[in-house]
Each structure stands twice: as C-alpha cells, then as structure tokens.
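Good morning C.,

I know you're traveling, so I'll keep this short. The sequence:
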Amino acid sequence: MNERVCIYAKDISVLLGKSYKQSVRILRTMKDAYGKDAQQYLTLEEFSEYTGIDMEIIRRKCLRR
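The tokens, ready to paste straight into the viewer:
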C-alpha cells in the first residue's frame, strides 16, 4: 500500500476540529513558516513538527479514513 506523505486542509480540519476555511489559513501559515510557495506541499512530518502532534496520531486520523 502506498502511503501519502503530504497533508491537506481537510486533514487539518479533521485533526484540529477547525472549519475548512480556517484550516486553509493554518496551512498557508505553516507554508510561510517553512518558506514554501503556495503551490508546494506540506509533508506530514512538517505538520507534526510545527504542531507538536505525534506522527502516529496524524497517521491514524488522516491515513485510515
């Protein structure tokens, strides 16, 4: 099974309990913090590092839907 490596606003919404629109803003803020352009992706590892949420929790919530 191929495992996804990037995170999307919908995943952030599920993980943090935020609206989709707020999750898009959070994703944009994280991309800015990592110096990424709007069209570049944010990895699950970068999200974990930025938020302090353990990778196992992220994988369990995002990749097993």
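Safe travels,
E.
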